[in-house]
Write a structure and sequence with these properties.
422 residues; Aminopeptidase; Alpha-Beta Plaits; 5-stranded antiparallel sheet; 8 helices; binds zinc ion; SPOR domain-containing protein; hydrolase; SPOR-like_sf
Length: 422
């Protein structure tokens, strides 16, 4: 009889795992696992799943489903670190050779061209496996796959493409077939499920009309669009000024907008790059809720880019989980707003607007405001070093986006925290 296995989508339920650019690890894990399970069954493999929906499984419940019942387990994960680490990792238990893990890693690297970070095992101080998935699954050959770092831009973007995503899934399916000794056949195109991922923040379909190296050219196009009653906004990305006419959560809405704009004689382009939305989405207009500014006791809106303090009295995230004490009473940047709630950038969590107060140190900066670039500012929002000669100078804010402002005189985006309003 051939070997019996189980696919384990990492995390789930109240445990989202890592987060990168608005995607939660648990969602990618479930998506890749459901696909691999379906494909392996079609190919005649005897495989099960530890979870087939978004449910919580703690280490005990999870490993109880595995230990003593299977020959192998594939535990699917994505890594996250500091936005700079990247690449594929597989981790195998200390009592087996690295062979299966190495084959999977090589295969993934082969299809993705992402860097191979390492194939390894890890012992704890007691001399047993460091990872509970190895330690608590007995004789099962459990391979943990870290498909890439979901908080690394290039790694993340590779998986954001559905074709790539399922290519990676398929490469593991093929290695499993080799491992258990059944014949592998490639998938039919209809095998790729259309699974919509819940988005925790700004992954959007943006409708773009043009991208320019020079601001004047971008503004000229904006003017033409505005004259044709089309609402526009400008973002600076990778050294270009991009004129966009909408950002949507749903592709159909973006396509409909593209059609409307094209009917007025403009060329459009839909870009699916994820990231921080420059503005509220058009199909879900942001409605900032009123809060009280501590300094003035005058109520005003919380907007993207604002600095807020999470109150000590805050109890639960907008999503229901308990807020740990360690994240309270700290200052955060508002990334997005929706009615009654704000998304805090540093912890990528929605909280109730009633649970935050505006940081008196940083009232919102709007375009047209005059600001000073702080002398302790270190880098532009785009990463380059700010020369000393530009610090301490006064500038006019041309545009704002979450946590960043565009300074007119030097046409550079800087972090809002690095400027002081005059
Ligand atoms: Zn994980």
């Amino acid at each position: 009889m051939s070997k019996k296995g189980i696919i384990d989508p990492g995390h789930g339920g109240t445990d989202p795992g890592a987060t990168g650019f608005g995607i939660r690890e648990k969602d990618w894990c479930l998506r890749i696992s459901l696909y691999q399970h379906k494909r392996l069954r079609e190919l005649g493999a005897d495989v099960d799943l530890t979870r087939d929906k978004d449910v919580t499984l703690d280490s005990v419940a999870r490993t109880n489903k595995i230990r003593g019942k299977y020959d192998f387990c594939i535990s699917n994960h994505w890594n996250a670190f500091n936005g700079k680490a990247r690449g594929v990792e597989t981790i195998y238990p200390i009592r087996v050779t690295d062979r299966f893990a190495r084959n999977i890693a090589n295969s993934l690297v082969n299809v993705s061209k992402l860097p191979l970070r390492r194939v390894f095992n890890r012992r704890n101080s007691a001399g047993t496996d460091w990872y509970f998935m190895h330690r608590l699954t007995g004789n099962v050959e459990t391979i943990i796959i870290e498909y890439a770092f979901m908080d690394h831009r290039a790694d993340h973007d590779w998986y954001l493409n559905d074709q790539n995503f399922y290519k990676a899934a398929e490469s593991v399916v093929e290695e499993i077939c080799k491992y258990i000794g059944i014949q592998y056949r490639g998938p039919k195109s209809s095998d790729q499920p259309k699974v919509d991922l819940p988005i925790v923040s700004g992954t959007l379909f943006r409708v773009q009309v043009g991208a320019f190296g020079k601001l004047e050219n971008a503004e000229r196009l904006q003017e033409r669009l505005e004259a044709a009653d089309i609402d526009t906004y400008l973002i600076q990305d990778q050294g270009l000024f991009k004129v966009q006419v909408g950002a949507y959560r749903k592709k159909e809405n973006a396509e409909a907008q593209a059609k409307r704009v094209e009917a007025k004689g403009f060329d459009t382009f839909i870009t699916t790059a994820s990231g921080t939305p420059a503005h509220g989405t058009k199909d879900e207009p942001t409605q900032p809720a009123a809060v009280v500014t501590p300094s003035t006791s005058v109520s005003r809106s919380v907007n993207a880019g604002d600095k807020v303090i999470l109150n000590n009295s805050a109890n639960r995230y907008a999503t229901g989980q308990t807020i740990p004490a360690s994240v309270k009473n700290r200052t955060y940047t508002v990334m997005q707003t929706r009615p009654g709630q704000v998304l805090l950038q540093e912890i990528m969590s929605w909280v109730h607007v009633a649970d935050v107060r505006l940081s008196s140190a940083a009232s919102a900066i709007e375009s047209g405001d005059r600001v000073t670039l702080n002398s302790n500012a270190s880098r532009y929002a785009t990463g380059e070093k700010i020369p000393a000669s530009r610090k301490g100078q006064r500038y006019t804010v041309l545009q704002t986006r979450s946590g960043q402002v565009l300074l007119r005189e030097i046409l550079s985006w800087v972090h809002t925290r690095d400027v002081t309003k005059l």
